[in-house]
Amino acid sequence: MTTKTDLKNLTLPALEQFLQGQGKERFRALQVFKWIYQQDAYSFDEMTNISKALRKELDETAFISNLEPEAVEQGNDGTRKYLFPLADGNSVESVLIPIEGRNTLCISSQVGCAMACEFCLTGTFKLTRNLTTAEIVNQIMAVRRDLIRNPPALSLDAAGIIDDEDDDDQADSPAAIRNIVLMGMGEPLHNLDNVIPAIQIMIDGNGLQLSNRRVTVSTCGLVPEMGRLGREIPNVNLAVSLNATTDELRNRIMPVNRSYPLKELLKACKEFPLPGRRKVTFEYVMLGGVNDTLDDAKRLLKLISDIPNKVNLIPFNEHEGCEFKAPTRKSIDAFHKYLIDRHVTVITRDSRGGDISAACGQLKGKLEKK
User: Would you say the pTM of this structure is higher than 0.85?
Assistant: First the structure.
């Protein structure tokens, strides 16, 4: 039995090769690609500028996959959490964060995660499998669809996930997704074979038409893969989940540090090819009584001082079964002030979706318990 090809797993050059292998002209790939990503076509029958004969051939060899949410929760601040069922019975989450008319979407790259960071809820699911390229881009397309049906109200400026320093003052349409952050379930750099083609589709002018300035890839610190990402897609933003300022503590809470300690990680950050005025974002989850002292702030400043940087402080979101606690407001403010006073660009991430299951893994875990 011949297995059909999911066309959403193919970049435009790969789609050209696929159709040329069937004896079709190269320009047909561009037509199909635009129908998929700009018209959100569900079937080949919708592609009216393509002959019926070619549509019939495509239907015999290929298909166009889609995702539809199994559950959607919306918070009072406009945050929306989506749970998407996959064809094999697994599920993944995405979170939409509306920020003054500029929607940021946080998407997943794996089912579960193998990195086993001590404070992370997703890590408790372990790694089941990588998402395909199609499953990554389909999260974006499904949320776009939902936004068209149910446009969000404007919300307060919040997350500090994306650098908007060079933004224009024009807000997007309520259904537009401005920023994509690969910070959901999974470690994106652990799935580069599928993440890189997905990003290429996102930033393709004939595909999802996103600016590379608006795509951020987060990593816990897979150093060789950081190098590969920088070589193959050098213009995306990099966010590094740091969370500790000594190897001793980072070894304990983030096992990846045992393979790639701070010295190697920071060297890779320094070498990452960021264009222009862009900076590496250092994410720092503040764990009460663990990494939230002024001594930690001083060490953090020293570690990143020779790298173009900005810092996102993320107060820990407590969840069941985890021993860590949220930091006090006093320690958050003191840490923030220490960095600000020394001219570091720092944002303390507001807690978004606090009234819904908006932390990674919470909605999935809640429904699995039911």
Answer: yes
Task: Based on the residue annotation, tell me whether 93 is a catalytic residue of this protein.
Answer: yes
Q: How far apart are CA 286 and CA 284, in angstroms?
A: 6
Which domains are present in the chain?
A: 5-63 (1.10.150.530), 71-369 (3.20.20.70)
C-alpha to C-alpha distance for 348 and 346, rounded to whole angstroms: 7
- Is 283 known to be catalytic? no
User: Of 106, 120, 269, 360, which is the active-site residue?
Assistant: 360
Catalytic-role residue among 93, 187, 225, 283: 93
**pLDDT tens-digit profile of 73-100?**
998 888 999 999 999 999 999 999 987 7
Contact 353, 76 (CB under 8 A): no
Q: Which letter, b or e, does each residue of 249-287 get, where b requires 16 or more Cβ atoms within 10 Å of its Cβ?
A: bbeebbbbbeebbbeebbebbeebebeeebbbbbbbbbb
What pLDDT digit, counting tens, does each position of 271-301 carry?
A: 999 888 899 999 999 999 999 999 999 999 9
